């Protein structure tokens, strides 16, 4: 099935631990049917220091979630089944 969500769309999470949150789509993976949403499914990675004397860091990033767990939100803030795209006049 075709992935109807594109990078830049605003979506609302409708299932999972982040249910109710909304954010902008940062990245899509159509073959895996997954998307990365800003502010949803945050994960932390601990990085070692590269040089002696430097401190390590904790980097927070967002993991992909399944596309079926989100719903596209329209420009007016209302959740839609599919984003209404305008066709050019021929």
From TrEMBL:
- Record organism: candidate division WWE3 bacterium
Query: What this chain does, per the record?
Result: One of two assembly initiator proteins, it binds directly to the 5'-end of the 23S rRNA, where it nucleates assembly of the 50S subunit.
Give the domain of life.
Bacteria
Q: Which Pfam families match?
A: KOW, ribosomal_L24
* Name this protein carries in UniProt: Large ribosomal subunit protein uL24
Its gene is rplX
Q: Which GO terms describe its cellular component?
A: ribonucleoprotein complex; ribosome
GO terms for biological process?
translation
- Keywords noted in UniProt: Ribonucleoprotein, Ribosomal protein, RNA-binding, rRNA-binding
Q: What lineage is on file?
A: Bacteria, Katanobacteria
| Keyword field contains Disulfide bond | no
Q: Family assignment?
A: Belongs to the universal ribosomal protein uL24 family.
Quaternary context: Part of the 50S ribosomal subunit.
Residue ranges of domain KOW in the record: 4-31
Q: Which CDD domains match?
A: KOW_RPL26
A GO molecular function assigned to this protein is: rRNA binding
